[in-house]
Design a protein that fits this description.
Blueprint: E1 4-6, H1 9-17, E2 22-24, E3 31-35, H2 39-49, E4 58-60, H3 65-70, H4 76-85, E5 90-95, H5 102-105, E6 110-114, H6 119-125, E7 132-133, H7 148-155, E8 161-163, E9 175-180, E10 183-188, H8 194-200, E11 205-207, E12 230-233, H9 235-239, E13 247-251, E14 263-266, H10 273-289, E15 294-298, H11 306-317
Parallel strand pairs: 1-8, 4-6, 5-9, 10-11, 12-15, 13-14, 13-15
Antiparallel strand pairs: 2-3, 3-7, 4-7, 5-6, 9-10
Helix pairs in contact: 1-6
Amino acid sequence: MIADIGMDIERAKNHLIANEIIGLPTETVYGLAGNGLKAEVVAKIFAIKNRPFFDPLILHIGDYSQLTSLATEVPKPLIDLVKAFWPGPLTILVPKRDIIPDIVTSGFPRVAIRMPDHQLTLALLTSIPFPLAAPSANPFGYISPTTPEHVVKQLGVKIPFVLDGGRCQIGIESTIVGMETDDLVIYRLGGLSLENIRSVYKGNIKMNVSSSNPESPGMILSHYAPKKPLFLGNKETLLSLGEPKNAAVLCFKEKWSEMNVKNQWILSESGDYEESAHRLFSFLREMDEADITHILAEKLPEEGLGIAINDRLYRASQK
């Protein structure tokens, strides 16, 4: 059987209450969701994704009151960020209560929590008495899904239902932050830009976005990757590799006239970072399915969401 796609929140709710796993829309990417307070259900998510158990998950909530029931404390800087950006593409890493199974956090004492900015999913989350563990709905390490069809194509034989929320608005995962002593630490760059965070938090910010033993989701170096080899660099560096045969080019604002390559995808002709993020994973999927041998990806300027997009492309280039 192949998973159904539909907008029936009641059906989604019934599957979740029955301890089943479903596909779920958010404003960032589609998630693979199940009851985050039952270890046996969370284990199904790891199995379906073929995700290593040392890579923690994010819990999704639909109401601010749930935060205190899941976290023993929330430092004031994180409260300030939550007030400014929830619901939205911000995940906070906070000390967990014992109610949360260790499998969710890979045994670490802190849990990642966020409130997604998607009307259907918020309605679902407020109708059930538990948070949802929901990593991206794709096989581990592959390109994250941004449409319900992406989920069905990859995991449709393993789950019964995908809640249809249309194409994801943002298109890359949430930004993950936490506190270490007096510093705010960014563990994953994502849909909330560094500039947005700095507009609220005026203290010192550290970056800790990669680890082979990740305390936070999204820190593993090789991730979000197409099956075709991907080479990342600035335009001049990639052009210096020589005339490619059967390559595809992922351009930022305009096609490369210097290179005779038929297969070229433009993230945003206007140079808009939000449009680029929105298109990124869909374009990588299209390129992966095209009749090409490898992908040349142009780095974006290191500002705004360009930083997070470059982070995804860098991880996609690591094998």
